[in-house]
Write a structure and sequence with these properties.
Organism: Streptomyces flavotricini
Oligomer: single chain
Domain DUF1996: 89-284
Number of strands: 19
Number of helices: 3
Pfam family, one: DUF1996
Protein name: DUF1996 domain-containing protein
Structural class: alpha+beta
Strand order of the largest sheet: 10-12-16-8-2-19
Largest sheet: 6 strands, mixed
Low-confidence stretches: 7-40
Shape: globular
Strand content: 15-25%
Radius of gyration: 24 Å
InterPro entries: DUF1996 (IPR018535)
């Protein structure tokens, strides 16, 4: 009888040991270097906005040739609910090539199959007739599923109710050290790094998050805002064009960012600088997640945006004229 009890005890211990080992291995495989789950949010992705130091100011205009104007393009805030899982700039011709959902303003037909000709002929949400397309990954609240088709259509861990933009600002600015020249029609541009979480450096991280009550503070983390304030996203695009191409391998080499003082790299020309500013009403205490590739774990550092210039030559000339003359314009 004693031998039978000992044997039973050994069997129980063996089963428990195997189960514990499997659980530990499973947790290890499901976790990253910081110990967080692939499907869970990392608490270190959040920061109280008051703990974020005030950032440096925009470079001030220097010299008589500075282009100090601004042009705001009124394209609404995606009231049409134009969403898809495509990316015309990065993966043209490939349906659902983004593996996450994008929100759009401007051109109302943009998808993976769009062409220069289809963009030029499409309807637009922009009041002044700009048919350019402006788009970015959606932001979701993860505490409820939502009922819109795109609340669950992206897959790859991107689920939750899509938060609608409370405001969308599409603005072009000049250059603090010189005049700007027109962008070529159908120029493709992107800002930010969709794979920043696993990238070897933060060199291409550009998007900044903030709160409406603290416009002088921005961060690459999800900010916790005071009650009554809106969460903000600011996406600034490169504005130094090589003078030749509307696209390039990797989607970056043909249009670069200026130095901190506004000076463009040698061999490039300053063009209007696009700035997209988004704001959201986020209930207090609600977890949020920007759509991402699954291995990027919804890191706020992966925020990004894309743009295809479909303005007519006359429309672009008006933007450039306003910026170079130092005026404040709205279309």
């Amino acid at each position: 009888m004693r031998n039978e009890r000992r044997l039973l005890t050994l069997l129980v211990c063996l089963v428990l040991g195997i189960g514990l080992t499997a659980a530990v291995l499973g947790a290890t495989r499901a976790s990253g270097p910081d110990g967080t789950s692939h499907s869970g949010m990392n608490s270190r992705d959040y920061v109280d906005i008051q703990d974020v130091p005030a950032g440096p100011r925009e470079p001030s205009a220097t010299g008589p040739d500075a282009s100090t104007g601004t042009v705001t393009v009124d394209c609404g805030r995606n009231e049409e609910r134009h969403y898809n899982e495509d990316n015309l700039v990065v993966s043209p011709g490939l349906r659902s090539g983004a593996h996450h959902t994008h929100a759009y303003v401007g051109n109302l037909t943009t998808d993976a199959m769009s062409t220069d000709a289809s963009l030029a002929a499409a309807a637009t949400s922009c009041r002044g007739g700009d048919r350019s397309t402006y788009y970015w990954p959606v932001l979701r609240r993860t505490d409820r599923a939502g009922g819109h088709p795109h609340d669950s259509s992206a897959g790859h861990g991107n689920a939750g109710e899509i938060l609608p933009e409370a405001t969308v600002s599409v603005e072009f600015r000049g250059n603090p050290v010189g005049k700007v020249v027109p962008m070529p029609r159908f120029l493709r541009a992107m800002t930010g790094d969709a794979v920043a979480y696993t990238a070897p450096s933060d060199a291409d991280v550009r998007a900044r998050w903030g709160c409406s009550g603290s416009p002088d503070r921005s961060t690459t983390r999800y900010p916790r805002c005071a009650a009554g304030e809106r969460l903000t996203r600011t996406l600034v695009f490169p504005s130094c064009w090589n003078g030749l191409d509307t696209e390039s391998p990797g989607h970056r080499a043909h249009i670069l960012f200026p130095a901190a003082n506004g000076v463009c790299p040698q061999g490039t020309f300053a063009v209007p600088q696009l700035r997209i500013s988004l704001a959201y009403d986020v209930p207090a205490g609600v977890a949020i997640a920007v759509d991402s590739f699954p291995e990027q774990r919804h890191s706020p550092k992966t925020d990004h945006a894309m743009f295809v210039d479909a303005m007519t030559d006359a429309q672009m000339a008006a933007v450039v004229g306003c910026l170079n003359a130092g005026r404040t314009c709205r279309t």
